[in-house]
Amino acid sequence: MIVGTVREVKDNEYRVGLTPGGVASLVQDGHQVLIETGAGEGSGITDEEYASVGAEILPSAKEVWERAQLIVKVKEPVPEEYGYLRPDLMLFTFLHLAANESLTRQMMGSGVTGIAYETVELADGSLPLLEPMSEIAGRMAVQIAAHYLEKMNGGRGKLLGGVPGVRPSDVVIIGGGTVGTNAAQVALGMGAHVTVLDIDIERLRYLSHILHGSLTTLNSDPHSIANSVSYADVLIGAVLIKGGRAPTLVTREMVRTMKPGSVIIDVAVDQGGCVETSHPTTHSDPVYFVDGVLHYCVANMPGAVPRTSTFALANATIPYVRRLAALGFEQAVRRDPALARGVNVYRGKITYQAVADAFGLPYSPLDTIL
């Protein structure tokens, strides 16, 4: 099979879909790998490194898109890439379709096969391709919050961990999954007081056992959320609905109760956001204020640490890329239920329930189309 990777064109996105190690594996399997020149530069990977393991370096993204049968990316296609989508192409990347109706309809109209990293799901319910990026985003959320709490950056002028005799900052995290857990670990390590809210009491019990420091766990309900938001110096939205749009759990009225200069980091913004006042921002223009509260809502947070993110993501994705390349789409998804759950769009139909529900579009189970 011909597998291709292109330079990401989303604002300040420096990750890349394949590493030299992944290319070497695919070439060893007998596949042809096409790399757009400069695709790995943002992650510190040179064309020479790709070429040394057997990749063919092409001068333009257009050539890679047109020749490849399988495109391995990091982020969803942007409008300038829509024209490359076609019926005989497999696209394997983060898609987040439930928050992007325009892209969803473009993919349906093009006939492309869209496989989303974020909905590849194992039998135990875990999301192996989303996991590494969630770990990074959770850890980044706290260091970003600490930066923006500084007065010259628009914050309240508080040190996250305080000092002896001075109260530490209050970090409130809504969602106790991978993002929330990693955010809590870092915040506690920096000395903050951390409150984690989740609807799963067993998850909260688990977190109370593994996390050490000034930690409070609360059942997530509207009253608890409103009360916690009101005293938060930092609010981190870490809610995930698998493949679906994030629920709005923090209303504008709640945001109004926060102190001026408090910081909101809505990690869920790539799925629509869990804070009513959130909207996607970019690394080049990351923050804005609503009612005096600073909002950081960058939809591709791990893109700021591309060297770490690229290798963490590729370690997880390459087994699935090799499977698709070796078996072809139909055989790969028939043999691997986890990969089959990753298919969001196939032959112009939506094959993931949460995406269809997000826009009131028909849902077609994959096994009825194959």
Provide structural commentary.
With 370 residues, the protein is α/β, with parallel strands linked by helices. The chain folds into two domains: 2-120 and 306-368, 3-Layer(aba) Sandwich (Rossmann fold); 131-304, NAD(P)-binding Rossmann-like Domain (Rossmann fold), CATH 3.40.50. Helix content is 35%, strand content 16%. The chain has 13 helices and 15 strands. The protein has helices at 20-28, 47-52, 61-67, 101-110, 131-149, 178-189, 201-210, 222-231, 252-256, 306-327, 329-335, 337-341, 353-359, and strands at 2-5, 32-36, 56-58, 70-72, 90-93, 113-116, 170-174, 193-198, 215-219, 234-237, 263-266, 287-290, 293-296, 343-346, 349-350. The strands form two sheets. An eight-stranded mixed beta sheet has the order 3-2-1-4-5-6-14-15, with helices on both faces. It has a seven-stranded mixed beta sheet with strand order 9-8-7-10-11-13-12, sandwiched between helices. Helix 5 packs across helix 6 and helix 10 crosses helix 11 (329-335). The mean pLDDT is 97.
Quick tags:
single chain; 370 residues; alpha/beta; Rossmann fold; 2 domains; eight-stranded mixed beta sheet; seven-stranded mixed beta sheet; 13 helices; 15 strands; 16% strand
Write the layout of secondary structure elements.
Elements: E1 2-5, H1 20-28, E2 32-36, H2 47-52, E3 56-58, H3 61-67, E4 70-72, E5 90-93, H4 101-110, E6 113-116, H5 131-149, E7 170-174, H6 178-189, E8 193-198, H7 201-210, E9 215-219, H8 222-231, E10 234-237, H9 252-256, E11 263-266, E12 287-290, E13 293-296, H10 306-327, H11 329-335, H12 337-341, E14 343-346, E15 349-350, H13 353-359
Parallel strand pairs: 1-2, 1-4, 2-3, 4-5, 5-6, 7-8, 7-10, 8-9, 10-11, 11-13
Antiparallel strand pairs: 6-14, 12-13, 14-15
